[in-house]
Amino acid sequence: MSWQAYVDSLTGPDSSGNKTIEDAAICGLASGAESIWASSPGLSSLTADQIKKLAGNSSALRECGPSIGEMKCMLLTDDSENPSSYCMHLKASKNHGGFNICVGKAKTAMVIAKGKDGTAGNQVSTRVFPIVKYLRDAGY
């Protein structure tokens, strides 16, 4: 499956037929080569610096929340080391819609998903977790 197919799967309907993810991206985390591997249009403006910050130590994100593309965000919880989640849970500022965002980290890849308006954070992370788990198990 291509990287874009993973993004398309995330932004498509879930098993209940609901579309809960508005935008998604898969990024590479290799030091010095942080980049977008595939994305939907709403996350295509992610920068290498933003990817680096999201991949780094989350304690720095607690004081000054990260930006994802044009959205300023706040870190809610970091469950990226929890094997039942592997995600950081973020919320976009009210000026940027207040969307729930999930950032799942594998060894060399990161999955970012932005929920649709009104989508709860757990609905976003439920979609991201299987892909992150698969990537981790496959060595990514």
From TrEMBL:
Any one GO MF annotation of this record: actin binding
Q: Which InterPro entries match?
A: PFN, PFN_euk, PFN_sf, Profilin_CS
A Pfam family of this chain: Profilin
Source organism, top-level taxon: Eukaryota
**CDD domains given in the database record:** PROF (cd00148)
Q: Name one GO cellular component term.
A: cytoplasm
What keywords were assigned to this record? Actin-binding
Which PANTHER family does the entry mention? PROFILIN
Q: What is this protein called?
A: Profilin
